[in-house]
UniProtKB/TrEMBL annotation, chain A:
The lineage of its organism: Bacteria, Bacillati, Bacillota, Bacilli, Bacillales. One of its GO terms (molecular function) is ABC-type transporter activity. It holds the Pfam family ABC2_membrane_2. The keyword Ubl conjugation does not apply. Coiled coil: none annotated. The keyword ATP-binding does not apply. Keywords: Membrane, Transmembrane, Transmembrane helix. One of its GO terms (cellular component) is plasma membrane. It comes from Paenibacillus cellulosilyticus. This is Cu-processing system permease protein. The chain crosses the membrane at residues 6-25, 37-56, 93-116, 122-146, 158-183, 232-253.
Automatic annotation (TrEMBL), chain B:
Keywords: Signal. Residues 177-186 have a biased composition (Acidic residues). Residues 163-192 are annotated as: Disordered. The keyword Signal applies. It comes from Paenibacillus cellulosilyticus. It comes from the Bacteria. InterPro entries: N2O_reductase_NosL. The keyword Signal applies. This is Copper chaperone NosL. Residues 166-176 have a biased composition (Basic and acidic residues). Transmembrane segments: none annotated. Residues 1-23 form the signal peptide.
UniProtKB/TrEMBL annotation, chain C:
The lineage of its organism: Bacteria, Bacillati, Bacillota, Bacilli, Bacillales. The keyword DNA damage does not apply. This is Nitrous oxidase accessory protein. Pfam families: NosD. Keywords: Membrane, Transmembrane, Transmembrane helix. Residues 42-203 form the Carbohydrate-binding/sugar hydrolysis domain. SUPFAM superfamilies: Pectin lyase-like (SSF51126). InterPro entries: Carb-bd_sugar_hydrolysis-dom (IPR006633), NosD_dom (IPR007742), Para_beta_helix_rpt-2 (IPR022441), PbH1 (IPR006626), Pectin_lyas_fold (IPR012334), Pectin_lyase_fold/virulence (IPR011050). The chain crosses the membrane at residues 419-439. The keyword Transmembrane helix applies. It comes from Paenibacillus cellulosilyticus.
């Protein structure tokens, strides 16, 4: 499946280069915990992984439409649900393998030549990237169902990526500036749950031990995530998130199938 | 086609959400919030606000709460933020830590009373307990909130007589107050 | 010579007394008054040596004697008054373990005297450790003070704890080499001047060193870690804070390495602040000299609020998540600091950049108005927004000529991590298998 797609290999090459950059940043000042180094790495991952997931995921679905393979599949007694779930699982696996290769290479290099990652941070970053791609592939599935062709998928993917990763703070600061003071925090928390990039970023900051920088406003949340069962809850929320997104994709895809 | 439908749906949802939020913004009943010692910080001096009788707080009209570790810090905040619309401010009864409105409380002051930022003002829910306290200390005056408005807000930083930096009269320094008893109010507030 | 011999004789005599008393201590614990009796019988200038054993408090020392505990000497006090009260000048106490069990507002050792020497005491307390009131020129050295621990498993709020060493209206004391753990404030000084706090170690307390309204305080060579704040310096003039290390104060939402509030004309030099929530927090402080500090791996390196006329020179800011924030702080002189997130240009080769380093106040202003936005701390989107907010640059705090290389020595942490190697190997193996099975094999 995915690994016959040349896109997957070019992303793999990109990710290897990217993870070596992370290694170089880390080697400059190897530390554990939340610091300037880990924060910079976190943000770099936050730029690349969602974009990669969105493009690869949405292209994979639009390709089915464009190349007509979906029409072929529709003729078979294959349920739309198993199609969507299969696509989702397959794409996630492809992305995870790409990251495994990237982190594997840089992890080995670091361990051999020195200046490598601390094991706790390394594992956390891998988990962070896996979680990010898992959630953004879910969004990619939705984009793939909406978009008619690859160009549309590209446009939507890039705009969602920009909105979720780069424009997010600006947008929220602007919008919430008009909201009464007491509603800013609840609204912010609610909206954060809608943006996987923010959700996963905050989770990792707390797990890195940086939760106190979020201030007294989020004391209870930070405390909650920091606990052992906080991780389980987080995984549950992510799963729920993915299920909802994939569910929407399924409903729309199913409608499209019957309309044809 | 579907995408536009979904867009419409989400826009309506957002509007609904906003409306509910705005509707909740009705009548104003200010209440003192409980103090969590793990997070409470004085908005002026940055010290931890302990859940004790010296803690005070004020709520602005838009609902923002400021905590203070000493009533003097609250006064300082009001003086430096004259444009903020204050909804209500609260102090605590010295004896049972009950939150009381700033206006309804009675205040006992003496330079030798110790408080976290050395303003030396304690608050009481009624005049009797304030009088009783001053009597038990053998020093101090009782004020209403109106009288407190014209208070000097002098901190007892032991610099009133000791401003000379030369340090040659050390004995004068240590014997200045002359009272060596440990059972007065001064042994009450060390733990800030 | 004669003097020393006399002293020796006194010691021998006392030792004789103890050889006689000691057996009692071993079998039936001595009655309440034993140490008190010895003190009462001693003359000023005598040395009273206490044999090992558990004694009951409370005792009062009202004449200038030297009290020496042999190893294993313990004074236990259940009463609400201090275990040891010293009212006479020139007393010396050493080598005793003191247990202050009552949670009442009291202290293990109360000092209302001057020229006292307290050393090598091991204090476990539910109240204060050592309390000084109107007591000058004392020396408090090499003691250990710690929280006695919870009775019958009940959790005690941090605010129920009291200070390790607490000074009020007490001047010219030297507090050195003490180890303080799990108290409220480690060393608290209020309205007390020219005290020297040197080489103490304080951990797991609220504020390690807390100065309020003091003049001429010296805080040198202390270490604080895992406290809420390493050193809280407030309402202070002419203090010297140097060669201290404040690390890992990051747990609490209000943590910082060193906080200066209302501090003027003081020197803050050669300190190491590492891994704190905020390295240096400077508010409403002026004319201080902050130099040669190493500020590393904090969430925020330094924060300036409403402070002016300070000198910030030759400090190294390395691997902080945000190096500096500054609002309402004009007229500070920042020169020749090293900022690791800044790449300067040094055309004339003097080691200093020709372009300046400016501190963007946007995020601090935003979160000051609406603390909820702290959620965006160093998010990619916030970095993007900050680069857009470039208006009014003239009012920003600026380092005119930042250093190109760190001023101090850099320890390179080049760790070889074998776990990482094996995890990486596993990752590569897994991915190879998957690629082979799904991609290569089928084609």
């Amino acid at each position: 499946m995915g690994f016959r797609n040349p896109w997957a290999y070019s992303f793999m090459a990109l990710f290897i280069v990217f993870s070596i950059i992370l290694l170089l940043i880390n080697a400059r000042n190897a530390v554990e915990g939340y610091s300037g180094v880990t924060s910079a790495m976190l943000n770099l991952i936050l730029y690349l992984v969602p974009l990669m997931s969105l493009l690869l995921g949405s292209f994979s679905l639009t390709a089915e439409k464009e190349e007509g393979s979906w029409r072929l599949l529709s003729a078979y007694p294959l349920g739309t649900l198993s199609f969507i779930v299969g696509k989702y699982a397959g794409l996630t696996l492809v992305l995870w393998v790409i990251m495994f290769v990237g982190y594997g290479v840089s992890g080995m290099l670091g361990a051999v030549f020195g200046g490598g990652f601390a094991i706790s941070d390394f594992v956390l970053f891998i988990a962070f990237s896996m979680g990010l791609s898992f959630l953004f592939v879910a969004i990619a599935m939705m984009i793939g169902t909406f978009a008619r062709n690859r160009w549309q998928a590209l446009t939507i993917s890039v705009s969602i990526w920009f909105f979720a990763v780069i424009g997010w703070s600006s947008l929220l600061v602007a919008i919430l500036g008009m909201v009464p003071y007491l509603y800013v925090k609840p609204a912010l928390i609610f909206l954060t749950f809608l943006n996987p990039a923010e959700l996963v970023r905050l989770f990792v900051i707390v797990k890195l031990g940086g939760g106190s920088i979020l201030g007294p406003e989020y004391y209870d949340w930070v405390h909650w995530i920091g606990r052992a069962d906080g991780t389980l809850w987080f995984i549950l929320i992510c799963t729920l998130w993915a299920a909802v997104a994939a569910g929407i994709a399924y409903i729309i895809w199913e409608r499209g199938r019957h309309r044809e | 086609m579907n995408s536009t439908k979904l867009m419409k749906l989400s826009v309506t949802a957002c509007l609904l959400f906003l409306m509910v939020m705005l509707a909740g913004c009705g009548g104003k009943e200010y209440k003192a919030v409980a103090i969590n010692e793990d997070t409470a910080k004085c908005a002026v001096c940055n010290m931890q606000v302990k859940d004790d009788a010296y803690a005070t707080q004020l709520v602005t009209e838009n609902g923002k709460v400021y905590l203070f570790d000493d009533i003097g810090c609250m006064h300082e905040w009001e003086a430096t933020n004259p444009n903020e619309e204050i909804g209500a401010s609260f102090v605590r009864d010295y004896n049972d830590n009950e939150w009381i409105k700033y206006e309804d409380a009675y205040y006992a002051y003496d330079a030798s009373y110790r408080s976290p930022m050395a303003y030396g003002i304690y608050s009481f829910k009624d005049k009797e307990s304030a009088d009783a306290f001053v009597k038990s200390q053998d020093k101090g005056v009782v004020m209403t909130s109106a009288e407190l408005a014209s208070h000097s807000w002098q901190q007892n930083t032991d610099m009133m007589g000791g401003m000379d930096m030369s340090g040659h009269d050390e004995s004068a320094h240590s014997e200045m107050d002359g009272d060596m008893t440990m059972d007065d109010a001064s042994s009450d507030a060390h733990s800030h | 010579m004669i003097k020393r011999r006399g002293w020796l004789a006194a010691c021998l005599l006392l030792l004789g007394v103890f050889v006689w008393i000691a057996p009692c201590a071993a079998y039936a614990s001595l009655d309440k008054g034993t140490i008190q009796q010895l003190i009462d019988e001693a003359k000023p200038g005598d040395t009273v040596t206490i044999a090992p054993g558990e004694y009951r408090g409370a005792i009062t020392i009202d004449k200038s004697v030297t009290l020496v505990g042999e190893p294993g000497t313990v004074i236990v006090n259940d009463a609400a008054q201090p275990a040891v009260t010293i009212t006479a000048d020139g007393v010396s106490v050493s080598g005793i373990t003191v247990e202050q069990r009552s949670m009442e507002e009291s202290t293990a050792i109360e000092l209302v005297a001057s020229n006292t020497m307290l050393s090598n005491l091991d204090i476990h307390t539910h109240a204060f450790g050592i309390r000084l009131r109107k007591s000058n020129r004392n020396e408090i050295a090499d003691n250990s003070i710690q929280w006695l621990g919870e009775m019958s498993g009940q959790e005690v709020k941090m605010s129920a704890k009291r200070n390790g060493i607490d000074l009020y209206d007490s001047h010219d004391n030297v507090i050195s080499g003490n180890r303080i753990s799990s108290m409220n404030d480690g060393i608290y000084q209020e309205s007390s001047h020219r005290n020297q706090v040197i080489g103490n170690r304080i951990d797991h307390s609220r504020y390690g060193i807390h100065c309020m309204y003091t003049e001429g305080t010296i805080v040198r060579g202390n270490a604080g870690n895992y406290n809420v704040t390493g050193a809280m310096v407030m309402g202070v003039t002419d203090a010297i804070v140097e060669d201290n290390s404040f690390t890992k104060q990051s747990e609490n939402v209000n943590s910082q390495g060193l906080l200066l509030f209302d501090v003027h004309t003081s020197t803050i030099a050669n300190n190491r602040v590492e891994g704190n929530r905020i390295g240096f927090y400077v508010e409403q402080s002026s004319k201080n000299d902050i130099r040669n500090n190493s500020i590393e791996r904090n969430f925020v390196g330094i924060q300036f609020l409403e402070s002016e006329g300070n000198e910030l020179q030759a400090n190294d800011f390395i691997a902080n998540v945000i190096n500096a924030e500054a609002t309402d702080s004009p007229d500070n002189r920042l020169t020749a600091n090293f900022w690791d997130n800044f790449s300067g240009i040094d055309a004339d080769g003097n080691g200093r950049s020709d372009i300046s380093y400016a501190i963007n106040p946007f995020f601090q202003q935003l979160t000051h108005q609406t603390p909820a936005f702290q959620l965006f701390f160093q998010s990619p989107g916030m970095q993007f927004l900050e680069t857009m907010m470039q208006s009014d640059r003239s009012s920003w705090t600026v380092d005119i000529e930042p250093l190109m290389m760190p001023a101090g020595q850099q320890a390179m942490a080049g760790k070889h991590n074998s776990y990482t190697f094996w995890v990486s190997l596993c990752l590569l193996l897994i991915s190879t298998i998957i690629i082979y099975n799904t991609g290569v094999k089928r084609t």
